[in-house]
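Troubleshooting entry. The earlier prediction with iron/sulfur cluster gave an output that would not parse, so I re-checked the input for stray whitespace and re-submitted. Clean input:
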Amino acid sequence: MHVTIDGRELEVEPGTSLLDAASRAGIEIPTLCHHPDLTPVGSCRLCLVSVAGRETPVAACTEPVSEGLVIETETEELAAQRREILELLLAECHFSGASETALAGTELGKWVQRYGAVRPEWSRSEPRFVSDSDPNPFLRVDFNECILCTRCVRACAEVQGRFVWGVSERGRETRIIAGVDTTMLEARCESCGACAAYCPTGALSDRWESPSNFQAEKVRTTCTYCGVGCQLDLNVVDDRVVGVTSVEPDVGPNGMSLCVKGRYGFDFIHHPERLTRPRVRRELLDGTPRPPGAPRGEWVEVDWDVALEFVTKRFTAIQQSTGPASLGFFASAKCSNEENYLVQKLARQVFRTHNVDHCARLCHSSTVAGLAMAFGSGAMSNSMDDVAESTAALFVIGSNTTEQHPVFGAMLRQAVLRRKSPLIVADPRRIDLAEFATLHLQQKPGTDVLLLNGLMSLILERGGEDAGFIRERCEGFEEFRETVRSYTPERVANETGVPVADLRAAADILCEHRPMAAIWAMGITQHTTGVINVLSLANLQLLLGNMGVPGGGVNPLRGQNNVQGACDMGALPNLFPGYQSVADAALRAKFESAWALSPTDGSVDRPLLETPGLTVTEMVDAAGRGDLRGLFILGENPLMTDPDVNHVRSCFERAELVVLQEIFPSETSQYADVILPGTTFAERDGTFTNTDRRVQRFRRAVSPPGAARTDWEILAELGRRVLQRQGRTPIGPHAGWEYASPDAILSEIGALTPQYAGITAARLDSGERLQWPVPSADHPGTPILHVDRFTRGKGRFHAVDHLPPHESPDAEFPLLLTTGRVLYHWHGGEMTRRSQGLNAIYPEPFVEISPEDAARWEIESLQTIRIQSRRGEFLGRAAITERVGAGVLFANFHFPDDRNVNNATIAALDPVAKIPEYKVCAVRIVV
Ligand code: SF4
């Protein structure tokens, strides 16, 4: 349609609002109640514009364009009207100080200043509300500054899907309330801060905000917590991060959304417990190795030269005396692509071992293995925005998405609320997302293959398979079909606990709504059947023809901020960077040549082996046996996060030499011999790769504390020192360890990793959305995998049968324990337990128990209970809830010592992926 705005002729789509048409032409019309993310309501009237031929102005946010409209957005008359509207709004407000101070940095303040509005003399002289009336630790509430634009109400409902805020009363008594006039947290607020981010006046604001820091320097970066990879701005004053603010609505993957951890969990950066100087155990300083099992002595703070020289000498001595297999390296899913690349290069090139792994082993190694078997690529096939915006149905299994990947969880809620996408949640717990589900299938823990085979059997019975897709793009279908035939609804219902009617209803939804996006996380992967669970999900998507299309796909949600990147970088014992197998002679030759060193003596010159190295759990066991004598750990805390921690502790007690590069003292640091103080995400530069394969920058905003050094610099210096000590010089094109910056490492990664070949610092800085594979500098990236062909050629069906968990409840240990995360903490809690507000909301572990079991064991709500397994015990407060079924306990893994659930979990491993079965073990309650 043709319209004229302020004399400019424009062509716009029918249905576009006048406001959007003007905005696209770069013309700013003032608004308060309007926000591009929210449903327009046209209530504040600030966006009134003049339309030729109409007597009265119209609201630009709600008025659609029509052919030939001629619009004026700024006239003297409009300015006067806007001033009047603003003064009426100001009159209804009450500010505790000068209104100019209160409104500094707000949208209302901006328009007040532009139109010269003055708070009238007859304005409210007394506050209407008690200011700072809500105890939320992150948000300040002062409705005396509220103009009733309802952006908070709409943001909470439409963006977060939470409905905490509402409007109460009428006329001049109208006000915003939380819940039924209660506190935010009582109204089930998740403290995401969206209400404050969208509030244009400061009535709802972040507690860290003050007049002294609203002009803080903003540094754009990537969140350090989960794999969603939200973009955010660190607000910096005097070399300190004082707060976090949202990025612009059109910046992916999150726009203005953040969760409570990303927005408010930043105070760990300047926590007084930060490690700031290298340390070595006193008794080791003279170079004497630790006798097996000898206790560790006191720490001595040393300078970097002493610490790095100590590590260089001892690791070289071990390598030369008992061989490369005596050394092991833990990379880190919390660290950057560049740092993970360097750790595996250190292991492989310098020390000649594939003993390198990281915590993906403990969360998604079964996904990587299973999807590689089915499709040839172990990553999320589609993108988060694609799933949320294009899918016809959602199938979420084993993912507590709103707590573990909260911003993506909110996107899923939006898909249900706005697009009416049917949602099936399959989870042994009634997780929050189940409230939005068309169907909640509450299968017993450890019965996922039963459930999925049962659903696929019903789909086949209905003739719901995509025969054309199976014929043209798949193999192995017949054997698969024979296998699922025996999974009758009655058998599946009996063994999973899901009623037959629900199984049939789920199969109907899956057949009638395509494409469906399958989404999962650790509820699927952390089993001794992790790989076959993943293969079943791959089967389901092949059967329905949901692969390679927008809105479909396999969507495993990676946990840590850079677990995808750490895998991509080859921090795995069987793969070089880019999933290039160490078993492939040509690929070994490629890396031998790229990393070639001038030879010295034979003990360090052996070629890279074709056999994989040890996994993290195998390395811990080997250290306990004395087979692995030197362990280098970057940013991991196995004494908190590995299963059966008592066993892990006994291994670390006997370990000869443990070098830990960390930011805080941890359970593992108690067993370290050397500590190298590293840096947080706010103190260095690099890239993370999020769950949908998007490579993103994170940026240095503040200086490291004390003598702490950036992690990539520590690793690079170690590499240089070891080569120098061994008298070897780099001769291959990528053999050196002199890096001017992380960008130089990224460039080396691109040269050796086909998926990252086209990812450059310059492209990232330009804001390009780059999802691997990006095989060349002019390739736009790949938002959807497997579009025309699978990475392995044909998609492969696998005939898989149900296998029981390693340990099931019995007379002695009659309850089944399953574990997971909560919204307010992250992983081992090293950062979130040092965040004051997060800890205030969730200060101790709760154990969910059904009302039936609570009655049976005579347990009161919030009573501290002791949970015992065959391996150990932990304490937690009882949360009596119907979220779990009878016979099942749920506990989180964020708290240490006698509250660590991993004292009880089992180290039984999936035979292929070697992932432990965190999700099922047998326990009893001792009251
Ligand atoms: Fe950070 Fe994940 Fe929260 Fe986003 S959803 S703010 S990435 S923790």
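This one parsed fine. The longest strand covers residues 873-880.
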